[in-house]
UniProtKB/TrEMBL annotation:
<dbReference type="GO" id="GO:0016491">
    <property type="term" value="F:oxidoreductase activity"/>
</dbReference>
<dbReference type="InterPro" id="IPR023210">
    <property type="entry name" value="NADP_OxRdtase_dom"/>
</dbReference>
<dbReference type="InterPro" id="IPR050791">
    <property type="entry name" value="Aldo-Keto_reductase"/>
</dbReference>
<keyword id="KW-0560">Oxidoreductase</keyword>
<feature type="domain" description="NADP-dependent oxidoreductase">
    <location>
        <begin position="23"/>
        <end position="313"/>
    </location>
</feature>
<dbReference type="GO" id="GO:0005737">
    <property type="term" value="C:cytoplasm"/>
</dbReference>
<dbReference type="Pfam" id="PF00248">
    <property type="entry name" value="Aldo_ket_red"/>
</dbReference>
<protein>
    <submittedName>
        <fullName>Aryl-alcohol dehydrogenase-like predicted oxidoreductase</fullName>
    </submittedName>
</protein>
<dbReference type="InterPro" id="IPR036812">
    <property type="entry name" value="NAD(P)_OxRdtase_dom_sf"/>
</dbReference>
Length: 335
């Protein structure tokens, strides 16, 4: 399998002027949702990511809650590493509970931003996202609050997550949006219809979360797979035994190309996504150095036109079974 490390991680530019490593690091799983956490191991992953040239870390105040930002804050303090941090606000959780609400108000935004700055130990957040859109509140009001934070020097760039094309255009008219973060992978391609075209029309970068289908596209989770306590994938429709059995056909297509190339299915999935446009930056998450190194090496893989055509034609005939979130989770997307 192809595990050779890159000599240098390539760079991509989000929006007009925000350069980041071509592959970022999603840090959510270091705190929750994917089984038990291990801070020492996570710190080692963060250190290794910097060694590999990954300088774009993604977090949020609700991961933990707060634990993930605190973890990254400790890493920044101990290492002195020069990395770019993207964090988010807008999902309100109580400690120890998953139940949540959405708040995009200026007052809450400012309180959340101050908290993130303190936990991260930084004077300015490089990219500040609205984690989920509060449908009842005009996006113009939210953008005005974010513009004020930027003018004060508390944030450098503004981003939106899981936003509709219509809302994105309204937001961008108030203040330039640097990046949109939405799920995008071989088994989640909704963004290709409206969101990606709108981003390109407006000059906005695109950050793809869950680019490996929450691990499913790696081939490690087939029908009947078991999950550790605290792993929320056990409750996701696409991972149910029947749906996983159906979706396994997609993994086999990816595995076939990977085997022929001498790389891993994860690397093929990431290489496919990177080839969809230089304005796309995937942020695969992991808390294991082995998978971090595998993901980083994908930046050096170039799929041939024939491989891409084979992959596109094969997946076009395969329906993905199951929604990507539960019914409650789907309420927050495309707002």
């Amino acid at each position: 399998m192809q595990q050779r490390m890159l000599e240098q991680m390539p760079e991509r530019v989000l929006g007009a002027d925000f350069p980041v490593s071509a592959i970022g690091l999603g840090c959510m799983g270091m705190s929750e949702f994917y089984g038990p956490r291990d801070d020492a191991e996570s710190m080692a992953v963060l250190r290794r990511a910097v060694d590999l040239g990954i300088d774009f870390f993604d977090t949020a105040d609700m991961y933990g809650p707060h634990h993930n930002e605190e973890l990254i804050g400790r890493f920044l303090k101990d290492s002195g590493a020069r990395v770019k941090i993207a964090t988010k606000f807008g999902i309100v959780r109580k400690p120890g509970e998953y139940a949540r609400s959405i708040d995009n108000s200026a007052d809450y935004m400012r309180w959340a931003c101050e908290g993130s700055l303190k936990r991260l130990g930084v004077e300015r957040i490089d990219l500040y996202y609205v984690h989920r859109i509060e449908r009842e509140r005009p996006i113009e009001e939210t953008m005005q609050g974010l513009a004020a934070l930027k003018q004060e020097g508390k944030i450098a760039h503004i981003g939106l997550c899981e936003v509709s094309a219509e809302t994105l255009r309204r937001a961008h008219a108030v203040h330039p949006v640097t990046a949109v973060q939405t799920e995008y992978s071989l088994w989640t391609r909704d963004v290709e219809a409206e969101i990606l075209p709108a981003c390109r029309e407006l000059g906005i970068g695109f950050v793809a979360y869950s680019p490996l289908g929450r691990g499913f596209l790696t081939g490690r989770f087939q029908a009947g797979a078991s999950f550790e306590d605290g792993d929320f994938r056990a409750s996701l429709p696409r991972f149910s035994p029947d749906n996983a059995a159906t979706n396994g056909a997609l993994v086999e297509v990816v595995r076939g190309i990977a085997d022929a190339r001498g790389c891993t299915p994860a690397q093929v999935a990431l290489a496919w996504l990177l080839a969809k446009g230089n304005d796309i930056v995937p942020i695969p998450g992991t808390k294991r150095i082995k998978y971090l190194e595998e993901n980083a090496a994908a930046a050096g893989i170039r799929l041939s036109d024939e491989e891409r055509t084979t992959l596109e034609h094969a997946i076009a005939g395969l329906a993905v079974a199951g929604e990507r979130y539960t019914a409650e989770g789907m309420k927050g997307v495309n707002a």
